Write the structure tokens for this entry.
Amino acid sequence: MIMSSARALGLVVVAILVTCSGAWAVQPRRIPVANGGALEVQMPDGWVADVQGGGASSAPTVQMTAPGHDFAMTVAPIAIPPSAGKPSRERIRAAVEQLATTPEIKARAEDPSVTVRELGGAQASGYYFSVTDKTWKAGTDEYHYMTQGAFVVGNVAVNFIYLSNTAPGPDLDAALDLLRSARNAP
């Protein structure tokens, strides 16, 4: 009887760990890219994507959210013209560093020394930074936390911004995993 109770307790602990792990089930989502096929990402179940704009010659903007979660992420894939060539990692990093040190970011960032981090996936290669807005006030339409960056996947450049009033955690981790999963599909 004691062994059965211990085994049952062990199964309950395993069930709790699996339930609370923050892991998301994912599903593929295709986002059309003008002159560039499609950007395919692995979107967590329950997330929704609202594709706005885009067409034969204009890039779409994708607003991603998840009901019941406190964040909004915008992703903007842009086809890289064949004549431009794929930007180097150094060029992508320099662009993100420049963005991270704009006067607006520096004036509002709680920590003035913004760290640029690498964002790499099977096909995606880029950089991002995260800041906390020291001027944020609860109850406003602004966000307290921001993660922003850019990456390249195949012949598509992608700019993104993740905004939340909840400290970085599982939702931001899932958003970064979504970006890392990106691939350029025909």
Notes: The chain is about 25% helix and 35% strand. The longest strand covers residues 71-79.
